[in-house]
Write a structure and sequence with these properties.
Two copies of one chain form a homodimer. Chain A has two domains: about 5-220 and about 340-420, Aminopeptidase; about 220-335, Alpha-Beta Plaits (2-Layer Sandwich), CATH 3.30.70. Chain A is α+β, with helices and mostly antiparallel strands. Chain A is elongated. The first copy, chain A, is built from twelve helices and 20 strands. In chain A, about 35% of the residues lie in helices and about 25% in strands. In chain A, helix 1 packs across helix 3 (about 105-120) and helix 8 runs antiparallel to helix 9.
Chain lengths: ~425, ~425
């Protein structure tokens, strides 16, 4: 008997069933019946979610390890014990007003791939693993992607365990122990996977806008976050002529419009966002004394990102000099862009095309565990569309057909990497 | 014996002494020893301040009346009982972080004028009155200038008494009664003054900036306050390309820069201020869903103010259409400009010039009781410089020489209006 590996498909009802079941833990209902999720890292709900997924792993016969920072890996053995596993995975923690797909899809999509292999009795040369990493969202502990960062040796374990929660000040190591997930397996991991593939919702509007089913992720944008404190001179809105004003609100406005113009002029993947802006004293008839604001710049190209940063800095300096305000800049975060392995990206692209799906090669604008794994092994990601581009939102949604398409691509990519062993051969 | 009326001057030490004494009630000390004042309308401290000033009025032999909304008028009789009084005055309530000059100077400057007349035994044909009006600041009860508004018949007494405090919800009429200032004199006043003159600090930087001692106030700017609610589409700062954004923060920025450009282009007295601006959800990596902001437009000319309003509205509509956001406009306040009586303005101007002071004809950018009195009698104001343009600030300050100059102009203007009677004639 031979199996037509290329014809294998996941069971979408089973995958949706697991997404729904996991989403019930920490479930949040929206005003219009949206089913969101609030399952923050290392909370009691996170424990329940972790327990549920480990139960499924064991049902599938996976060998489960929990490492010292709480990362969980379930391994299906391969025919050749000397080979490193092909790993799938993501995270199952959510933000406070999160959805049921962000992260969860990559983990449960991985389980669905394993179950499909099991169902067809299909063995592989490489082991196949499914992982979920601790505290990807960063909603409770900073930095985000902490678990995968420690997993690849990018952050010392001791430092990670000493991180304090933003909400209640709890120590990460204590919370891990409290929920029973301070595991015995060493972290960083002893060996790197053979490859890593993460299925994820896009969390943006591009695929839907262009009518594309599969995003072939080429890498992750570099991120530059700056907080500005602009100090001017508070003044009476009625009695202070325009020429005598030193108005930080005006400067904030020019910066907001200016970084948008920079992004528009640079084009490509360059984006610029002013997401936070606070006036002080924030009164209708008072020219503000101070404005704090943030500027988020991203590009897939480090050189271009630095160019955007220089233009932004020049803009701040020019406006400060013209208006007489002071503009203090503080870096909140800075990550270089990540480029995924070209052969891995091509494999995702070719596989999706073979399965008949429309594709778009695109960078990820958000951070993902995959960018950490890319430090130690060939890595790629598969994106599926997010309805209305929504994520980190209880209205986050991806339809069953798109979920199926993404999971099928994941399955076929993993089959290609893990080298199936035909039972008849 | 004749008196050289034109040579009469106030006693600046006496005036400063009264300002200091009244400023001790509700005194607030700043971090650098600034002596500010928090004496909100109809609080216990307001009662103590009112009592102190009435004591001074009685010491000077004035006949004191308290009306039904708590306005207090002290009258020095004139030689001709058929004539209406020449009235000076202002208010003695302050904002929460107020100074010792705003309002108080107009009242205590009036008392100083009366004391100077008394000291020299100088009688006048018209009675001379000093008034302080209830709740000018609007810091506790809305609207501001409430007492003078009711005094001139611009608001029904019953409506005013039913106003609730912004802080504790107390009813104005109850608070008046509680502090013993629900007086027996009818309000609105039975008859209009012969004229009204208000001495006040500028509360802005113009006089100091131009090195001028006396501001000859030509009127009060019209005010147009609008609250905007700009609704866009919240989106991920990394995953949402610039072309797919519907960003209310960007629109708020363009409006902020745009109304400034409108004011600059229109020139003259036109000012435009964005004092309040709030982003929601206000997160570094999220394109905001909603921004609320305020726009404060002022001009001395109603026609020009309407022009500014039309340009502002057009700006909002254009930006809303271009970006795809909705911009809701809500009028928070709208007052037409007030022009003071030309002969009164000329009298202040000529008097200040005769006394050797530099002068500038200027509108008031802030509201004052004088604009209410202008509805019923010839009215003008005398401005003296505010150090650093500061007001509604515990660092509010005006030097003794400027106080003296202003009070001398007030004295001479009142003498001219009240027609002195030479004892020898």
């Amino acid at each position: 008997m031979t199996i037509d590996h290329g014809a294998l498909r996941v069971d979408i009802d089973r995958l949706v069933g697991r997404l729904d079941a996991l989403g019930e833990i920490g479930a949040v209902l929206g005003p219009e019946g949206e089913r969101g999720c609030a399952r923050l890292a290392l909370t009691d709900d996170d424990r329940l979610g972790r327990d549920l997924v480990i139960g499924w792993m064991r049902d599938l016969g996976l060998s489960v390890t929990i490492d010292a920072v709480g990362n969980v890996v379930g391994v299906r053995s391969g025919e050749d014990p000397s080979l490193a596993p092909v790993m799938m995975g993501s995270h199952i923690d959510t933000v406070r007003t999160g959805g049921r797909f962000d992260g969860n899809l990559g983990v449960l999509g991985g389980l669905e791939v394993v179950e499909t292999l099991e169902q067809h009795g299909l063995r592989t040369q490489h082991p196949v693993a499914v992982a979920y990493f601790t505290n990807e969202e960063g909603a409770r502990f900073q930095p985000d992607m902490l678990g995968s960062l420690v997993y690849v040796g990018g952050m010392a374990l001791e430092e990670a365990l000493d991180v304090r929660a933003a909400d209640d000040g709890a120590r990460l190591g204590d919370e891990l122990a409290r929920i029973g997930y301070a595991g015995p397996t060493p972290c960083p991991a002893a060996g790197a996977p053979h490859a890593f593939v993460e299925l994820h919702i896009e969390q943006g509007p591009v695929l839907e806008d262009e009518g594309i089913t599969i995003g072939v992720v080429t890498g992750v944008q570099g991120i530059s976050w700056t907080e500005l404190t602009i100090t001017g001179r508070s003044a009476h809105a009625g009695t202070t002529p325009m020429r005598l004003r030193v108005d930080p609100g005006y400067v904030a406005a020019e910066i907001t419009a200016g970084v948008r113009a920079i992004a528009r002029q640079m084009g490509g993947s360059q984006v610029a966002t002013v997401g936070r802006c606070e006036f002080s004293p924030n009164l209708v008839n008072v020219v503000p004394a101070k404005v704090t604001m943030t500027v988020d710049l991203r590009n897939t190209d480090e050189h271009l990102l630095q160019q955007a940063e220089r233009r932004f800095e020049h803009l701040c300096e020019t406006l400060a000099a013209d208006e007489g305000v002071t503009v203090e800049r503080r870096t909140l975060a800075r990550f270089e862009p990540v480029e995924f392995d070209e052969r891995m990206v091509d494999l995702v692209h070719a596989t999706a095309t073979r399965l008949g799906h429309s594709t778009l090669r695109m960078p990820s604008g958000a951070g993902h565990d995959a960018q950490m794994l890319a430090r130690v092994c060939p890595t790629s990601m598969v994106f599926v569309p997010s309805v209305n581009g929504l994520s980190h939102n209880i209205a986050e949604f991806t339809g069953a057909a798109d979920l199926q398409a993404g999971a099928d691509v994941l399955l076929q990519v993993v089959l290609e990497l893990a080298r199936p062993v035909d039972p008849a051969v």
